[in-house]
Structures are given as C-alpha cells and as structure tokens.
Amino acid sequence: QVQLVESGGGLVQAGGSLRLSCAASGTIFTIRVMGWYRQAPGKQRELVATVSDGGSTNYADSVKGRFTISRDNAKNTVYLQMNSLKPEDTAVYYCKIILEVLNRLNDYWGQGTQVTVSS
C-alpha cells in the first residue's frame, strides 16, 4: 500500500509564490517518475511537471520559467516551487508517482491540494 500526502496549497495574490510538497510512504521500491498535475473547474486534468529518477524534468509550456520541480529521493518527496503565479494557475494540484515493482509500473495519485490565485 502506498500513500501520498500533499501540502502547501492555499490562496495567493497574482505574482506571488507557493511551494507544494508530496511525500510518499508505504511499500515503496523504486519511484521512477514523480510529478504534478492540475485540474481547473470544467477542464481536464493536465500535466504540470515531472521529474524522473535520473533527474530529467518536463514542464508544461504554460509554466516553463515560473515553476520548478524537484525531488528528494531519501525522503520520497517531490516539490513544486511555483513563482509568478497567475489567476489561470488556479486549480486543484495532484501529485502522481510511478512505481516500479517486479518490472511492472504502477501509478499512484495524491488527494489533491487547492491552489487559488487572486487577481
């Protein structure tokens, strides 16, 4: 069993910053990919950023240059530093990890944390 606990969401004014954290616990072998996704009201869930176990990162075009993803493998934790926030960044942000267990990849999702950016 794997649990993901997210924290760091909240209300911030446009131009402000927030840092999201997601800690994984439970029966964890190898975390191949850690990432953040978001879902705004009435929209589909979309990728924000991912980081692989090798350190490679991938960002949505809309957040490049403003958001930074990082991971602490010793703590099984992924972070998302969000700077220069815009009202259009308002969404529920979800953490996702991809675990490799016995050569199989399994996805796990967090419960989500609300980020609201006021104009």
Task: Write up this protein.
- With 119 residues, the protein is mainly β.
- It is 0% helix and 62% strand.
- The strands form two sheets. Strands 2, 4, 5, 6, 9, 10 and 11 form a seven-stranded mixed sheet that branches.
Topology (elements, then pairings):
Blueprint: E1 2-7, E2 10-13, E3 18-26, E4 30-39, E5 46-52, E6 57-59, E7 67-72, E8 77-82, E9 91-101, E10 104-109, E11 113-118
Parallel strand pairs: 2-11
Antiparallel strand pairs: 1-3, 3-8, 4-5, 4-9, 5-6, 7-8, 9-10, 9-11
How is this structure best summarized?
By secondary structure, the protein is mostly beta strands. It contains no helices and 11 strands.
Shape: elongated
Helix content: under 10%
**How many strands in all?**
11
Mean pLDDT: 96
Query: Number of helical runs?
Result: 0
Rg over CA atoms: 14 Å
Q: Quickly give the structural class.
A: mainly beta
Order of helices and strands: EEEEEEEEEEE
**What's the quaternary structure here?**
single chain
Q: What can be said about the biggest beta sheet? A: 7 strands, mixed
Q: Which regions contain 5 or more consecutive residues with pLDDT less than 50?
A: none
Proportion of beta-strand residues? over 45%
Distance between the termini: 40 Å
Tag the structure with descriptive keywords.
119 residues; mainly beta; seven-stranded mixed sheet; four-stranded antiparallel sheet
